[in-house]
Amino acid sequence: MIYVKDRKIVVPGELVATGNFRVYSGAEKEGKNIYSTVVGIVYTDPEKKSIKIVPLKGKYVPRIGDSVIGMVEELALKKAIVDINSPYKGILDVRDASMNRNAEINRLFSVGDIVYAKVMSVSDSVVLYAKPPYGKLREGRIITIPSTKIPRVIGKKGSMISLIKKYTECRIYVGQNGTIWIKGKSEKEDLAIKAIEIINSESHLSGLTDKIMRLLEEKVI
Predict the structure, then answer these.
(1) Which SS3 state, helix, strand or coil, does residue 163 take?
(2) Prediction pTM value
(3) Long-range contact set of residues 121-127: C-beta below 8 Å, sequence gap at least 24
(4) pLDDT in tens, 52-85
(5) Domains of the chain with bracketed CATH
(6) How far apart are the C-alpha atoms of 15 and 102, rounded to whole Å?
(7) Cis peptide before 151, with omega less than 30 degrees from 0?
(8) Residue 192 near residue 202 (C-beta atoms within 8 A)
């Protein structure tokens, strides 16, 4: 018997099911009982008698209105399936990706394309919107950090990311899912990435803004 609904969040020690189920990850058996060992999302298959729990740690939990950056991993009928660094898949319908009503999804995107999009709704999947000013990102470089560090990268009222943009002269899009896209001159991209890596590793320390300012000034002047 399964005690939790499919794709629901569970916590360590929570009883997920009782019976003869195959456990793939995120859970362990004690006798006939199966308990979660992580904070994660349950995926159950009653027909195959299988249970899998995908940990939420390190994964982005989508919220309506978030801007995200993801990679197209599959093209289906009139929609693209996008990896947004989340237990949930991003679904981008062709109607939400182009101003052209007659557009075809395989003419807009290819597998491996990077997409900047907005989260419109969240359920068993995440509905995305990618009409302008969102859309496919061409060239540039990608850096991924824990989504919990993104507010520090942005800074109060956008102060930190504005600082990085000013000194590096790069175009930078920041996804709430922890993925950041950077495009500019090669050496300026390197500088922006270095600044973001410092923010990621030292986000808990005071005086971080001053440190980033000194780094940027030293490299630019």
Answers:
(1) helix
(2) 0.75
(3) 121/64, 122/62, 122/63, 122/64, 122/88, 124/7, 124/88, 125/88, 125/89, 125/90, 125/91, 126/62, 126/84, 126/86, 126/88, 126/89, 126/90, 126/91, 127/91, 127/93, 127/96
(4) 887 776 678 899 999 999 999 999 989 999 999 9
(5) 9-55 (2.40.50.100), 67-137 (2.40.50.140), 141-220 (3.30.1370.10)
(6) 49
(7) no
(8) no
Contacts of 75 (CB under 8 A, 6+ apart): 81, 105, 106, 109, 110, 111
Cβ atoms within 10 Å, residue 110? 11
pLDDT value at residue 57: 67
Beta pairing, strands 22-25 & 90-93: unpaired
The amino acid occupying position 181 is W
Q: Which of 55, 85, 56 is nearest to 69 (CA)?
A: 85
Q: Give the Cα separation of 18 and 33 in Å (integer).
A: 4
Residue 84 burial (CB count, 10 A): 26
